[in-house]
Amino acid sequence: MGKRALFLDRDGTLIAERGHLSDPKKVVFFPETAGALYRLRNHFLFFLVTNQGGVAEGKISLQEAGRVNQYVVHWLGESGVTISDVYCCPHSRDDGCECIKPKPHFLQKAAREYGVDLQRSFVIGDHPHDVELAINAGAQGIYVLSGHGKKHRNRLNVPCWIVNNLPEAVDLVVKAMRL
User: Fold this and answer.
1) Range of the domain at 118
2) Is 9 annotated as catalytic?
């Protein structure tokens, strides 16, 4: 049996939505982020899966996006939460790449490289593409109303759980997995 994983959207799920972030100093974590994830640290691998279309648009560089991602990983690590890997799509939707959400490329990569059982895994995010990603990969999607979640809720077209924030998503995972 493979490992369970949480695939986490970055902006609007773990940190406040602040546009195309290029500077780690501008990252604002939701106050409950680390504590919520900490509850699952012994039961799941954690992955960041983030679309950074601002790179393709020339608004930020791939290096700037990488520095922000690494800051998020470092900050969570300091809080006792280890991120196994960061998957960042720097393309625009028009590029037709294989790695942009909701395509399951990164989740399938994690399954191969880390032994993740996608059927026992979850994708948590604040955009319909996050929960569509879950369905496309055979995982369970949890849609959070934080970030842009409330704004895009009417665009949901796949079955998923809907919660207010990350702590409520973690509560659902704990109940579903009987942890």
Assistant:
1) 5-177
2) yes
